Amino acid sequence: MNDQLRIAAAVFLSLLCLHASAQEKVIRLYDGPAPGSEDWKQTEQENRTNLWQTRVVFNVANPTLTVFQPESGKANGTAVVICPGGAFFALSIDSEGFDVARWLNTKGVTCFVLKYRLVACKTEDPTREVMSRGPLDKVVAPIVKLALADGNAAIGYVRKHAAEFGVNPERIGIIGFSAGGTVAVSVAMNYTAETRPDFAAPIYPAYNWAIKGSGVPADAPPAFILAASDDPLGLAPQSVAIYQDWIAAGKPAELHLYSKGGHGFGMRQQHQPSDHWIERFADWLDVQGLLKK
Length: 293
Hints:
By secondary structure, this protein is of the alpha/beta class.
């Protein structure tokens, strides 16, 4: 083999290794069909050309966790389950999922992006379909219950396999955006010892859709809550309501409301102060002692 061939082979092998290392592990939450939706027939799909102008996943019937681990030596033992939003019709998988995970990895946090169960779509564009369905409360109510079960199962899975991922079983939290924020706050109010999150971060959530159980539990986790006052869906007061409920129950909470940012900003860059929300979340994690090894 001449030198040029050796160089070409070395480059090919290095690219192959890089590609392999970039492939995150995907874990199915349930061994068989997800409990409560055993008869679902829809097949998970993606759409990249839609009103939200981002890649979305829809028709999720088999919930999964996609694992994002920090670089070797950076992990600090904290883990977070990330729940993207999309009105329970889709998941904004990048700006409210994978991009969040990659950023938190730089802070040493091990991340698990949750694809939870969604409303079955009748078309191939969930972003247009959600706008055509009229009032959504009755449509999403049964799905919220399933998504809550998926959120609990995700926390339980990470805690059970904590040693495998180098995670402290007492430092496992949940963050969610919009409908994913509904999942996060529902999990923070409905759990067992095995599925209790150690912290919760609902970001511009629909609290009116949340399953509140008997209210804020006596051992509820500390909460980080964030939204924008100009949210066109009018959800900012619902973040205030979560904060008030936590404080009234005597539980730790921190609330951020940006004057501008809109809804669904996630990791998008809009040249607004809300672009830096995740830095405020990291500040809060640090105050909680969750970024220390």
